[in-house]
Write a structure and sequence with these properties.
Layout (H helix, E strand, L loop, with lengths): L1 H10 L14 H22 L9 H30 L1
Helix pairs in contact: 2-3
């Protein structure tokens, strides 16, 4: 009896607490990584002498690092907390 009840409970996983309102998906990770690569591309263009006037290379590098960190944290949060809700 206990195994049957535990199987039913594991199949019907509901969101509780903060997970009801705050969702992180794989898409968030991919968007963050894409943003990091875009800003790294701007840094590379600036390094090869291309003149881009709307952003400095240090600002672009800082934004690339920020988006990279956000992508890593979003992936970790998804794997630890949100992955079971998608199954």
């Amino acid at each position: 009896m206990e195994t049957n009840e535990s199987q039913v409970k594991s199949e019907n996983v509901t969101r509780k607490g903060l997970h009801k309102f705050f969702h992180v998906s794989r898409l968030d990770t991919y968007i963050s990584v894409l943003g990091a690569f875009i800003f790294l591309g701007i840094v590379a263009l600036k390094a090869f002498g291309r003149e881009i006037s709307f952003i400095t290379w240090t600002d672009a590098l800082q934004l690339a690092i920020l988006f990279g960190i956000f992508g890593i944290v979003a992936r970790m949060y998804y794997r630890f907390f949100e992955e079971r809700y998608d199954k």
